[in-house]
Amino acid sequence: MEKISIPSELIRILKSAKNVVALTGAGVSAESGIPTFRDKDGLFTKDNVEDVATPEGFKRNPKLVWEWYSMRREKVKQAHPNPGHIALAKFEEIFPNFTLITQNVDGLHQKAGSRNVIELHGNIMRNKCFANSHPVDVEKLPPSSEIPPRCPVCGSLVRPDVVWFGEFLDPEILSAAEVATRNADVFFTIGTSSEVYPAAGFISLAKESGATVIEINPNETLKSYLADFTFRYPSGKVLPVILDEFTRQKD
Ligand code: BV8
User: Fold this and answer.
1) pLDDT digits (tens, 9 = 90+) for 8-56
2) CATH of the domain at 51
3) Ligand 1 centroid from CA 127, angstroms
4) Which protein residues touch ligand 1 with a CB less than 6 Å away?
5) SS3 of 198, please?
6) In angstroms, rounded to a whole number, what is the distance separating the alpha carbons of residues 198 and 57?
7) Do 151 and 235 share a domain, yes or no?
8) pTM for the whole thing?
9) Within this chain, do residues 184 and 133 fall inside the same structural domain, yes or no?
10) What is the pLDDT of residues 113-162, one digit of tens each?
11) Both 176 and 212 in a single domain?
């Protein structure tokens, strides 16, 4: 891989930044062996979104959806944070105020040590019931051959605690992400195709709010035109270099 150089102008901007925000997507976990959704061998190229990531799909075939998420959970359990996750966890130490907004449901940012994480789309390791969103710890359920299992409180089917298409995001989570984005001096958008809303809208909001926008993605995205700095490399390669350059250069 060619040597990645960080413009000194970007380091200067980062040195004077107070509020830094990073929005991440599936690409940041690709180097941990977790498939993305829309890349050539992505999850949505094999299964239709409507069938596996909507409430209608779950109602039509709950077993299919439960098993699709079980397959993904297995990959998450075997995955480890990569150097990109680890660098982002260190961003919390080098910037006065750092907020990580993730579309990912794999929990790898937290595993890498990030504490201030806003999970826009929920978390694949958590479950709840379909009818009343009662939290359900499936490990504690009595053995049952029924797939998916049923809620011990109300008897409705258990589903992953993630936000599906057509479902509203938690309003408090949404507003926390919006406030952080409006206040950002610097906004990183990392490993996302910028296709899904409201997440992709934060990139435009950051720009409108006067932030310096940095895109880290080997490919162009729908929001690349907003970027002030662009790194067409894997995030696991770029983020450690940015961290090293930042800490190497004296204030
Ligand atoms: C909602 C479930 C109100 C969890 C997911 C406005 C305009 C248009 C449409 C809408 C809109 N507002 C709402 C909508 C509808 C819809 C939407 O956005 N549709 C799009 C697709 C057109 N949004 C919703 O329904 C949202 N709800 O707004 O409620 C409402 C209700 C009804 C009607 C209207 C409004 C809910 C959105 C959440 C959906 N749930 N997943 C799960 O199972 O994971 S979203 C799904 O896509 C994933 O969660 C994922 O997080 C998300 C985004 O995908 P990416 O992370 O970007 O991944 P992708 O594969 O696309 O791209 C990977 C990128 O990584 C690529 O660019 C690649 O180049 C790059 N990459 C690869 N390797 C690397 C890398 N980058 C760096 N390093 C590498 N090594």
Assistant:
1) 999 999 999 999 999 999 999 999 999 999 888 899 888 899 999 999 9
2) 3.30.1600.10
3) 20
4) 25-27, 30-31, 36-39, 42, 53, 103-105, 121, 162-168, 191-193, 195-198, 216-219, 221, 234-236
5) coil
6) 21
7) no
8) 0.97
9) no
10) 999 999 999 999 999 999 999 999 999 999 888 999 999 999 999 999 99
11) yes
